[in-house]
């Protein structure tokens, strides 16, 4: 086999290897590279679990009554149910205790349902009650082969797996994109799921949207072809230099 043919085949191999590696670094490879839409299941609603901390804001037309119904907002020390987060801690039985309303079961309920429940209970003694509930200790943890592993606080009621990975600085190039583990606790029972970010069906998975205290573990890949992130980042430059040198050698013959 002539030198020119061998050199050409080598350059082609390097280029194809780089393309194959780049494809492994992308997400949702089965989605066509054109504009379009896809139907998703109805978005899941966050449901309150034991150990959650709820910020319940209750307003009325009477300022004194409103102050009484919002003790944790007054800054008074020793507020029941308050801790690192100001709010009502859901106890092991799924209850919170509110002024005037007493104990209320909020386990596995949405914030909208809690709003209605609290307003109905307080409406027995107070007129014109308006209630707003939010989860204030919504946190997720991202571990493994990511740029910045750690625990992250979520300011909204909903966050997706991609949101969490973005907070963690995205996956490293050595990470396994088709084998990401999500650990979730529901009513004291641990659940485990494996997510494949190369498959668009992940967007419809019940684990795509995260729950409070979810743990995301990103497994490292073997990446024998590209052992380090720096190597992959420099791959286009390496291919360009090799191609240039090969062309010079071929032309000089």
UniProtKB/TrEMBL annotation:
Q: Which Gene Ontology BP annotations are present? A: monoatomic ion transport
Query: Polysaccharide export protein N-terminal domain location, by residue?
Result: 44-135
Q: How does it sit in the membrane?
A: Multi-pass membrane protein
Q: Which GO terms describe its molecular function?
A: polysaccharide transmembrane transporter activity; porin activity
Residue ranges of domain SLBB in the record:
139-218
Q: Which GO terms describe its cellular component?
A: cell outer membrane; pore complex
Localization terms from the record: Cell outer membrane
User: Which sequence ranges are marked TM in the entry?
Assistant: 234-252
- Taxonomically, the superkingdom here is Bacteria
Q: PROSITE patterns in the record, alphabetically? A: PROKAR_LIPOPROTEIN
What InterPro entries does its record include?
Poly_export, Poly_export_N, SLBB_dom
Q: Which UniProt keywords apply?
A: Cell outer membrane, Ion transport, Lipoprotein, Membrane, Palmitate, Polysaccharide transport, Porin, Signal, Sugar transport, Transmembrane, Transmembrane beta strand, Transmembrane helix, Transport
User: What family is this protein classified in?
Assistant: Belongs to the BexD/CtrA/VexA family.
The cross-references to PANTHER family, in alphabetical order and at most eight, read: POLYSACCHARIDE EXPORT PROTEIN GFCE-RELATED
Q: What name appears for this protein in its UniProt entry?
A: Polysaccharide export outer membrane protein
Q: Name the source organism.
A: Chitinophaga agrisoli
